[in-house]
Amino acid sequence: MTTQPIDRFLDYKSPEGGCNTGDFVEVPLGPRKVLGVIWGVGEGRFDPSKIRAVSRVLDVPPMGQDMREFLVRSAEYTLTPLSQMVRLATRAPGLFNPPSMRKIFRMGTGTPDRMTPAREKVLAVLEDYGDMSFTLKELADMAGVTSSVVKGLAKQGAVREEDTPRDVPFPLLRHDFSGVALEGDQNGAALELREGVADRAYSTVLLKGVTGSGKTEVYLEAVAECLRLGRQALVLLPEIALTAEFLTRVEKRFGAKPAEWHSGVTMTERRRVWRMVGAGGAELVVGARSALFLPFRDLGLIVVDEEHDTSYKQEEGVLYSARDMAVLRATYCAAEVVLASATPSLETWANAEAGKYKRLDLSSRFGEAQLPEMRAIDMRSEKLASNHWISPTLKAAVQMRVDAGEQALLFINRRGYAPTTLCRACGEQIGCDFCDARMVEHRFQKRLVCHQCGETKPMPIECPSCKVEGKLAPVGPGVERLAEEVTELFPDARVAVLSSDLFSSARALKEQIVSIAQGGADIVIGTQLVAKGHNFPNLTLVGVIDADLGLQGSDLRAAERSFQLMRQVSGRAGRAAKKGTALLQTFQPEHPVIRAILSGEEEQFWRAEAAERMEAGVPPYGRMAGIVLSSTDIQEVFDLGGEMARLDGPLRAIGAQVFGPAPAPIARVRGRHRVRLLVKAPKNVPLQKALTKWIAQFKIPNTLRLSVDIDPQNFF
Length: 716
Ligand code: ADP
Ligand code: ZN
Description:
The protein is of the alpha/beta class. About 30% of the residues lie in helices and about 20% in strands.
């Protein structure tokens, strides 16, 4: 029997023994058994004697009222059916199967035949933790020994081995296990965050500080306070590859690893996390955005690290921003939210300006580390051979670092070998058969790849259009092509390429990052993957190949994104004792964004950007919603789109405007034609209600998909 979560509201008779609001239950649905949550007393639409009864109430804590309110409100906000929100909150496989068994280890009564340093370490951990038990891996990891050492001790009874249900609590964290001595403005910030947690009331704080200023150390103080109070804490991170480093830090600070929740976690472990979060056996969860929907029993703190990161916006299924939902959730459970970033989103910056969020600044890097010196390389006066992208000035700077035994990073935000493949005979650019996107050559995989839908095909020999052979040529640089140039310019240097698609697994990527940090490469070439918080102590130069990329384009957030990315990448240089330099290759050094990056006058940049958005009435000073209609039938989408634009009464009633229909920037994805409408509204109007009324006017055929994206981040 497979039990699947139910996806709508249904009426059932309560089971023998009754049930309560919030209970997780198994109910019959046709021939199947499915699971659901009791949402309340029925409205008396059905005669109880005629409907089926709940099969059983499951043996897990009921969904709390705060969680139910949060789901209702987030469903209203994102215009998602409540049942779909509930599904997000029950997404753990085999949640309701009877627990399976596993082996755990605790202090035994026997004496080992002989002591070795490794054995002593194991016994010391057990002694240290009194009556606690561990899985084999946990115990071995904590003692820093191999699992065979633990097994050896178990054989002799010095360690006791037991079978227990698999979903065991996570090791206890100790809020005062160890800590660093905070310095300067770290002290004040940590104190404020601790007080915020101790207040047991909702608040949101922007923790702003350059990379390396100690934001993590400071928010770990808030976690410590939360643990001390016996409440639970959640830390959201944008990137799985970062988790390992973070877990180690948590272990150093609190004496054990926290629970993990992201796509790399096994199914059994997810189930354990879900259950333990509800039962109170997990004090701290580190995870990706969906961790927000875990059934925390008493959540007292949510940290959103790198809060500006675009991966916090879920772009498929339920469209939500984890940053905004974190704030919403916190209001229902009286928790503190910490939004940490070196380059906050304009939304958050504006909320702090308006006094809705508190703001704490860490103004300098910790210890000796200094901010890198930033300079532009004016590409208009550099001489480059054709199909080369590294200017003589940048080349000389890289050579200097390599000679000094330091590391240099070259940043280019383009995956693959070349962004375009062009036929030199007929001018054809090779595109995807299913999307309106160009195929990108990936020489490493010897294939063309569509970055939109993932479709791949072998590199053709003849042009698909004019059939002439041998005329297809790459145009422009991608990370792989840049690597070729680097090898040519620096034949003796060790070169590493960091691009998400060059690694078969998150683990392989992690290993490469560790190896680079330990000095395993002289020159690192990377895509935006490298912008995200990795620590390379020996890195002293960052060269940005094309700082202008991202300044073009009509995207509302182009300038903001470009600013954030450049600052983050530049922040990779000089994180340890050595001073770093960042060089930006640009054709427009006088562009306001480039100037703001170079001068480091961030507040000025944000104020200018804010003024422009206010003028245009766009977020965060106005509201937006993106509507995408898609169908295999192009006429159908344009017909409905046109009708929607005409019948805009409910929107006009709140002062909102509709733009479109227009082909979406990517007008075809996986064979479906896409049309976009954009709704712009003033800030404090009931946008969602108006949208619902507006959309309800239309009959939407089954063949057509309509999705509404509230506060869209991307326009594709
Ligand atoms: P951020 O999160 O702002 O990038 P981190 O908290 O990661 O900064 O700090 C950068 C580095 O400096 C880390 O290795 C961290 O352990 C160290 N560090 C920061 N503050 C202190 C302190 N007060 N004492 C000791 N080490 C610190
Ligand atoms: Zn495609």
